[in-house]
UniProtKB/TrEMBL annotation:
Catalytic activity reported: a 2-acylglycerol + H2O = glycerol + a fatty acid + H(+); 2-(5Z,8Z,11Z,14Z-eicosatetraenoyl)-glycerol + H2O = glycerol + (5Z,8Z,11Z,14Z)-eicosatetraenoate + H(+); a 1-acylglycerol + H2O = glycerol + a fatty acid + H(+); Hydrolyzes glycerol monoesters of long-chain fatty acids
Quaternary structure, from the entry: Homodimer.
GO cellular component, one term: membrane
Residue spans of biased composition, Basic residues class: 75-86
UniProt xrefs under Pfam families: Hydrolase_4 (PF12146)
Keyword Plastid: no
Pathway given in the UniProt record: Glycerolipid metabolism; triacylglycerol degradation; Lipid metabolism
Enzyme class: hydrolase
EC number: 3.1.1.23
Residue ranges annotated for the Serine aminopeptidase S33 domain, each copy included: 128-363
Listed name of the protein: Monoglyceride lipase
Localisation per UniProt entry: Cytoplasm, Cytosol; Membrane
Gene (name only): MGLL
Biological process, per Gene Ontology: acylglycerol catabolic process; fatty acid biosynthetic process
Length: 391
């Protein structure tokens, strides 16, 4: 099934009235819960309030941009001296703190190209590692939610590592805000490069869930020959055709132009898993973002989907895709499309009937099967990569 075509919005030659735009997008999307705004006067008042808020946010954004420029310049000068962003720990005098107010000097981290601190996790095996596995988490969550899976992978003598994406978990950045989806790919490659430098002879595999699946696809497509395998759990590949109609996509782009920080609603925790214990763990996790997803972030996801359509034909590496047939967050048709499009000779799709989105957090009979599938597949690919390196 083809990926829905994304319509661009050109505003350079058009004067747009905010009130008319909101009326239009309200009809097209039904996104506003402000049903009491029945009159034009009330709508105008709403727009003025939002505009003032947006102006303030814009000013703050400019201030942050200037700060990031200064940090980046300082980091760049340090890079020439220390050969890149290889230092994981800042100087003791660093005032930087995580969103949870923990000094980054007390946390494992990397500093990305924008000078932002990204919290990292490392799961090192007891014996010498056979391979590196990078995990890319999904939207709104954090890499700590993959501890169970990572611990099992270390049992295969794999060195597992991950970080909280910008705007997620214990990393810097406004919550679930990113200037460009490519920032996630850039940061992933930076982290992978750091680990490859420390372990230059080890094969590298990448594992991604949901939005992390999109990140994994685009990361692998940047360097298609450098990864020994890619494993995707319920990946974001396409937008639902019923939701992403051309007119709704157009309306979303209009909203992004007028009110980019408008919330479109939060992720439904009931769609994560059928496992009540896991659902409660998700809703009570303070590192998970439970707020509304902003229009600007949705636009970045749509941009990523467009890039994925172009990237898939480049992929020839071994791929394993796991997806639940009742996934309401990432359309399973995307996984079928991926299987039809990638050029990999070694590709497998396993569908779990009636399972929801987070297969690794599903009912025990599903999650146990998922872990077994992952461990078996990765073990085979690591062994194959090891044999290739010795020939």
């Amino acid at each position: 099934m083809p990926v829905p075509h994304l319509i661009g919005l050109t505003t350079g030659k058009v004067s747009l009235c905010p009130v008319k735009l909101i009326l239009f997008t309200q009809r097209m999307l039904g996104l506003f819960s402000t049903c009491s705004m029945k009159s034009s006067t009330e709508l105008q008042k709403f727009v003025r309030t939002q505009s003032r808020s947006y102006s303030t946010l814009s000013t703050d954004t400019k201030a942050r941009s200037c700060l990031n420029f200064r940090i980046k310049g300082r980091t760049s000068r340090m890079s020439s001296k220390h050969k890149g962003h290889s230092s994981r720990m800042p100087e003791e005098s660093s005032p930087k703190r995580s969103p949870q107010n923990i000094p980054y000097k007390d946390l494992p981290h990397i500093i990305n190209a924008d000078g932002q601190y990204l919290f990292c996790r490392y799961w090192k095996p007891a014996a010498s590692p056979r391979a590196l596995v990078f995990i890319a988490h999904g939207a709104g969550e954090h890499c700590g939610r993959y501890d169970d899976l990572a611990q099992k992978l270390t049992g295969l003598n794999l060195f597992v590592f991950a970080h909280d994406h910008v705007g997620h978990g214990q990393s810097e950045g406004d919550r679930m805000v990113v200037s460009d989806f490519h920032v996630f790919i850039r940061d992933s490659l930076q982290h992978i490069d750091l680990m490859k430098k420390e372990h230059p002879k080890l094969p590298v595999l990448i594992l991604g869930h949901s939005m992390g699946g999109a990140i994994s696809i685009l990361t692998a497509s940047e360097r298609p020959s450098e990864f020994s395998g890619m494993l995707l759990i319920s990946p974001l590949v396409v937008a639902s055709p019923e939701v992403a109609t051309p007119i709704k996509v157009f309306a979303a782009k209009v909203l992004n132009f007028v009110l980019p920080n408008l919330s479109l609603g939060s992720i439904d925790p009931n769609a994560i898993s059928r496992n009540k214990k896991e659902m409660e763990s998700y809703t009570s996790d303070p590192l998970v973002y439970h707020g509304g997803m902003k229009v600007s972030f949705v636009i970045q996801l749509m941009n990523a989907i467009a890039r994925i359509e172009r990237a898939l034909p480049k992929l020839t590496l071994p791929i394993l895709v796991l997806h639940g047939s009742s996934d309401k967050l990432c359309d399973i048709r995307g996984s079928y499309f991926l299987m039809d499009t990638v050029q990999s000779q070694d590709k497998t799709l396993k569908v779990y009937e009636e399972a929801y989105h987070a297969l690794h957090k599903e009912l025990p009979e599903v999650s146990t099967s998922v872990f077994t599938e992952i461990l078996t597949w990765i073990g085979q690919k690591v062994s194959a990569a090891g044999e290739t390196s010795h020939t």
